[in-house]
Specification:
Blueprint (H helix, E strand, L loop, with lengths): L13 E3 L12 E6 L16 H8 L4 E3 L6 E3 L7 E2 L5 E5 L14 H12 L17 H5 L9 E4 L3 E5 L7 H5 L9 H7 L13 E5 L5 E6 L13 E6 L3 H9 L5 E2 L5 H8 L8 E5 L2 E7 L9 H10 L2 H7 L4 E3 L22 H10 L6 E8 L4 H13 L3 E8 L1 H8 L7 E3 L5 E2 L31 H11 L7 H18 L2 E12 L4 E2 L2 H4 L12 E2 L2
Parallel strand pairs: 2-11, 2-12, 16-17, 16-18
Antiparallel strand pairs: 1-13, 3-4, 5-6, 6-8, 7-8, 9-10, 10-11, 13-20, 14-18, 14-19, 14-20, 15-20, 21-22
Helix pairs in contact: 8-10, 13-14
Amino acid sequence: MKRKTLMVAVSLLLVSLGAASAAPTRGGSMVVSYKDDVTTLDPAIGYDLQNWPIEKMLFDGLLDYAVGTTRLEPRLAASMPKVSADGKTYTFTLRPGVKFQNGREVVASDVIYTLTRVLDPKTKSPGQSFYTSISGAQAFIDGKAKTVTGLKAAGKYGVTISLDAPNAAFLNIMAMNFAYVVPKEEVAKAGADFGHKPVGTGPFRLTSWPSGQQLVFERNPNYFYANLPYLDKVTVKVGLDPSVAFLSLTRGEVDLLGDGIPPAQFLQVVHDPRYKANVLMRTNVNTSYISLNTGVGPLKDVRVRQAINMAINKTKVLRIINGRGELAKGYLPPLMPGYDPAASGYKYDPAAARALLKAAGYAGGFDTTLYTTSTDPNPRIAQSLQQDLAAVGIRASIKSQAQSTVVEAASTKATAPMVWSGGMAWTQDYPDPSDFYWPILSCKSAVQGGWNWAFYCDKALDARAEKADQMVAPGQSAARLKEYASIFAALNKQALWVPIYHEVRYMMRSDRLVGGLAELEDPIHNIVYERLSVNK
């Protein structure tokens, strides 16, 4: 989610269509709606835009971001860490007296356990690859060592983390949800169900979770962070169709539309002066794309993948979403450091697509499957993509399913040939181009259960990215970003994705909910529940 030492400031386009927020007050409750249930609240496992803000209600990390910014600050750590001259050793000191929700104090061994658990293959954490730069991590993963040698406790509150090589994004990685500290005894007690029985240090406690209905969070009365949270209770309603949720908001039954303004009501809402103060808009640092599984049938051929890129009319997709996006020319979004404004991408050219398919031996086209989530407008977008593909002879059947089912299929090798990522667009974990490489396009992520749905592995590119991440010396930032731009240009030639657009996200809140772009459209956490409040 974040990036530190050589981080280039990300200039976010933040525009509020409403009036300035009132000052926050203590007490009261709010309701947020989602169509799909939350999959897990285990910070080592949950990894999407719906899970992460909710996990932040329950857990804390050593570091976090100042609300509404990409600036790191200490959280469970008493201060920013000391970094060795060679950039390979980080020494953290914990705040004394911070307690888990079970009443036990957080100590250095909890941090070591948390990171070791993320690295443990038995955990099946999608965040494992972020932490393999820690010394001894790979030996531990491979079963050649029982502990991670680069993780050391120094007394009750000191933690030293040693890396095999400098990593320009390591402090950002330490602020990701995967590194949120968990108590070993509670994980042992709950076992595989820890994601439904979470215990952390966070501002709220989970008190109820009837599956498919709602999650109820209540204030942690012993929270260590001064004066937070403001709310006494947060209820996350699930199973609500976005249009139904919108009506509930207008009746005062819902305070925040977690899935955003539904397409059917979008034009009505943004042009109605009554809702001006209820709407927030931000250009997200993300990319919505079609992933192309390079290990499946005709998609193994780069010419076929390039043809698919040329077959898709991206402008038509933007019309379906009422223009709520910027056409993508590559994998990186414009607000991400390393973005190349000169990149042109693949032009919409069905004739050239047909010629490429013929050259690849598929003059008559072929049959395939396109997966999508079932939340509107994604099925309609999938139908548009299906029509474009049919125009060049590719017959794609659509599988419209719940998000968790699509993720499972997409992350299982040889199961999903094509996946429309709508609703699961890759959004920055932290403001650095490495976050658009290692988790979703590297060899490390091209594994069962990973997020490299193209299942593409280029070890030479991995080596280049590793070398770029070691460029931590003063004055190397520009060269590092230029190298990453070159890496993404090489990936684009392989046509692993069809990048469609970068989302312009609209949020809608009730009249009583107090919170602006800093809290409701945070560039890292998306929603910062601990700082929301209501007018009582």
